[in-house]
Amino acid sequence: MRSLTKTVVLSVLHTLTGCSPIRADPVGNATLKRCPMRLAIYQNGRSTVADAGSGCFIEYGAQPNNVRPDLARNGAMGAYDVQAKSIRAGIVFQGEIAPECQFRVPVPQP
Known about the structure:
The protein is mostly beta strands. The protein has no helices and 8 strands.
């Protein structure tokens, strides 16, 4: 989310010890993992970072002939919900919505 005075960034941190596998997609050569999330807020020359629970991360394996991964099969998306004042994030994995990877993270208001 970005406005003239505030920028908010939701990050899923793919770390060696902080993530755990959920399931694998052998066809897409990808692994779905649960990892920690952080919410960073930049406003008025200051920044704050807060724990945002856990989210999902797609780890792609090497693709044959360096072909790009099929993002319609395995991909992440996010959007800011203005009315709910929250970030919506989700994953499509193996071509289907991954229900365990649909999140709403509230954005703190002043």
